[in-house]
Amino acid sequence: MQHPKETGHSKNTAKLIGLVIPNATIYVGHLPADFDNAQKHTNALNTTLIYPSALSTPIESASTILKHVEGSKDKALKALTLAHEHLILLDGSWRQAYALWQSNPWLHGLQAHHFDTPPNRQYDIRRSKKNHQLSTLEALAYSLDVLYKIDPRPLQNALAGLKSHWLTYSKP
User: Coiled-coil region(s) at which residues (predicted)?
Assistant: First the structure.
């Protein structure tokens, strides 16, 4: 879910996600009505929100649970894995992401994860106060790696390309 002010940024990492992961969908808006299509395809049983809130749990512990569930015959345990069918990330500045979170109470009913041990941010062409504040692309790469053991390098390579391009052409 992308804040409208993010769409025109030349340093927009969500746009790269769509290029690397063809089945990714970017919904742009601010209010619940802007995300009607997202709401139709997601629910509390099949969707996980990647956003640090009072309701979120560490993604690293979810990964541990998923490992135990894989070989289990317990239906309740297997149901936990369904919550990772869709991932939602909030794209924008921290203030914009918070505004999306506040304006869309339907997100509050989803399973949510935050990062206890995020990687150091590589996306340094935009300012951040802390080294663990990741771009949307970095947050997705980390989530896919932790939850599914999907190789994050294609996303990381796209980010490195954006960074290289930006640094080459932004110098006076």
Answer: none
Cα distance between residue 50 and residue 55, in whole Å: 11
The CA radius of gyration of the chain, in Å to the nearest whole number, is 16
Structure tokens given for 98: 């918070």
Q: Is the pTM of this model over 0.85?
A: no
pLDDT of amino acid 105: 95
Closest CA to 48 of 167, 165, 148, 158: 148
In 33-125, the DSSP E strands lie at 47-50, 57-58, 86-89, 111-114
Please give the pLDDT value at position 85: 82
* Residue range 134-166, pLDDT digits in tens: 889 999 999 999 988 899 999 999 888 887 766
What is the Cβ-side half-sphere exposure of residue 87, based on CA atoms within 13 angstroms? 24
